[in-house]
Amino acid sequence: AQKVTQAQTEISVVEKEDVTLDCVYETRDTTYYLFWYKQPPSGELVFLIRRNSFDEQNEISGRYSWNFQKSTSSFNFTITASQVVDSAVYFCALSESERDDKIIFGKGTRLHILP
Amino acid sequence: DTGVSQNPRHKITKRGQNVTFRCDPISEHNRLYWYRQTLGQGPEFLTYFQNEAQLEKSRLLSDRFSAERPKGSFSTLEIQRTEQGDSAMYLCASSLNPSWTAYEQYFGPGTRLTVT
């Protein structure tokens, strides 16, 4: 069965600190996709990144970076030099594309960036 | 605005009433998804369409729920005989997919349903 676990329910850091959001996933498929979405207070889910299971290269986009490790089934997300606008709920998600592409979401990590 | 739109944004209804929500996907997106999100949880998959065909329904979707996408464009989600447990945010998403490839889904702002 597919499952996404975000063990950190809530995190608070002071602005400009770096913060890492953890994500561990379970799947029996060899082909799958991993995602991160951001849900700001306005409520609309914002797509951040998609990574397929065959591409283990880490990715950096501005202050955001993602560390994908198949050996530990983890897909962690780091925000460098955090800003107050980064305050949101962040969801890690999984899609097993061999069957369909419905997305299975974790429960989310609520991130508070304190000024 | 060319994003996914949903109407209404908020709906308050009394238990036992029927409600219908509408989703307009990004134009030319062939896949459309419905999810439900309750407080403190991630979105949960309900159903999805490839063009006008409904390809999968979650076990979460009881017989009181029905979804349609008659012309392969907008979709409606109807809940009959609403119950208080149906109170949630209903999210619609769309994506452009060739077969068997999971492209990112773009989400609408959601419809928040409150059943009193």
Total of helices of chain A: 0
Cα-atom Rg of chain B, whole angstroms? 13 Å
Mean of the pLDDT scores of chain A? Answer: 91
Terminal CA distance of chain B reads 33 Å
Strand content range of chain B: over 45%
This entry's quaternary arrangement is heterodimer
Could you tell me the radius of gyration of chain A in angstroms?
14 Å
Major sheet attributes of chain B:
7 strands, mixed
Largest interface: A-B, 26 and 29 residues
* Most strands sheet of chain A: 6 strands, mixed
The low-confidence parts of chain A are none
> How many angstroms does the end-to-end distance of chain A come to?
41 Å
Specify the helix fraction band of chain B: under 10%
Query: What form of chain A results from the Cα inertia axes?
Result: globular
Structural class by helix and strand composition of chain B: mainly beta
Order of helices and strands of chain A: EEEEEEEEEEEE
Compressed to H and E, one letter per element, the order of chain B equals EEEEEEEEEEE
Q: How many strand units of chain B?
A: 11
